[in-house]
Specification:
eight-stranded mixed β-sheet; FAD/NAD(P)-binding domain; alpha/beta
Length: 344
């Protein structure tokens, strides 16, 4: 049973199905819904860590491993569902301020292609994916492969130790399974707060603006000083995002809108006087140093955790799904799981 139907949960289910498991996903809202408030739908779908040289190696390595798997995953989803997640290798142009020496050293060390263009740094291999369509494709793939989807189903906090026989819903039902995997992002702490998991996860709101521009207005993703601009194939352009510690509030604010609009227009002057098509927010599962938890629960034998990916759930999802599946099956994982274990 996968608890949480975001991109991490859906890709974890996909990996387990491919290994022969019968899988149920329990989701408190609706999978692939824009009203869920989850970062899986709300984010921009940038398949690369922002300024990876500023993170711990474990974070950037997991993100790179996830990014490298995206072409295979998206090709399979398109072939089997007919839904195109729109994975595009568009490159990312990073503008000052940033430490160019540190950045280029990191690129050389990690075999990441780069070009210096004046004071800017271009990473031509960076890709984007249209995460709402990725979620739609994942949901359709799971349906085709007989995964049970229990949507609009909220679980009560876990109380047991030892071995879980089942999980109780907030309406009093008991849902049974042999193995359980928590992939519920920002909501994971509430589910696990009465156990010994000791997770440091809290919701961090991100607001984004949407514009409509002529196609190919931006040949690359542009990043500058904590802010990015990214354009889809059909011309829709995303600008964001904020990073706000406001609890589970998924609202949007006029102040953030004005601030993001000013930043977007400063980077791309053509956006001045362009109407904002949409303004929304999502809740990221905030963690110290962006480090997720991918491990067996410390006291509950048949409970696993794959959560807390903060800003990089989309980027890390294929690799973290592989990693948690290897832990469940006892296979040799594609990378060392110990840096992502809780309570170490």
């Amino acid at each position: 049973m996968i608890i949480g139907g975001g991109i991490v949960g859906c890709m974890t289910a996909m990996e387990l199905v491919n290994r022969g498991y019968r899988v149920t996903i329990v989701e408190r809202n609706q999978i692939a819904s824009q009203t869920s408030g989850e970062s899986s739908w709300a984010g921009a779908g940038l398949v690369f860590p922002l300024l990876p040289w500023m993170y711990r190696d474990e974070v950037s390595q997991l993100a790179l491993a996830g990014a490298n798997r995206y072409p295979q995953v998206c090709e399979q989803l398109l072939r089997e569902t007919g839904i195109d997640p729109e994975l595009i290798q568009c490159g990312m142009l990073i503008k000052p301020p940033f430490d160019k020496t540190l950045a280029t050293q990191w690129c050389i060390k990690n075999n990441v292609e780069f070009e210096t263009i004046g004071e800017d740094l271009l990473l031509p291999g960076v890709a984007q994916v249209r995460n709402p369509r990725l979620l739609q494709a994942l949901k359709q793939w799971l349906i085709l492969h007989k995964v049970t989807l229990l949507e609009h189903t909220q679980l009560a906090p876990i109380q047991e130790t030892g071995t879980l026989d089942g999980l109780k819903t907030t309406t009093g039902e008991t849902l049974q399974a042999d193995l359980f995997v928590v992939t519920s992002g920002a909501w994971s702490y509430e589910l696990l707060k009465d156990t010994a998991a000791n997770l440091e996860i809290k919701p961090m709101r991100g607001q984004i603006l949407l514009y409509q521009m002529p196609a190919k207005t931006l040949p690359h993703i542009i990043y500058q000083d904590g802010f990015y601009l990214l354009q889809r194939q059909d011309g829709y352009l995303l600008a964001g995002s904020t990073l706000e510690d406001v609890g589970f509030d998924t609202g949007v604010t006029e102040a953030a809108k004005r601030e993001m609009q000013a930043k977007a227009e400063a980077i791309v002057p053509a956006l001045k006087d362009m109407p904002i098509q949409k303004h929304w927010s999502g809740l990221r599962p905030g963690t110290p140093e962006n480090l997720p938890t991918i491990s067996r629960h410390p006291t509950i034998a048949n409970l696993y955790l794959n959560t807390g990916h903060f800003r990089y759930g989309v980027t890390m999802a294929p690799a973290s799904a592989k990693l948690i599946t290897a832990l469940i099956t006892g296979d040799t994982p594609l990378m060392d799981a110990s840096p992502y274990a809780c309570c170490t």
